[in-house]
Amino acid sequence: MQQELLREGPSRLPEERLRPERSRSDCPVLLSERLVLRAPHIDDIDALAHLANNANVATMVSRMPHPYTANDAADFVRRAKVGEIGKCVYAITLGENGHFLGCCGIEPVDETSVELGYWLGQPFWNQGYMTEAAQVLIDMVFRTREWVTQIDARCRVTNIGSRRVIQKCGFQFQGTGMVESLAAGGRVPVEWYRLDRKTWMSLRTWGGAR
Question: How much is the pTM?
Answer without folding.
Answer: 0.86
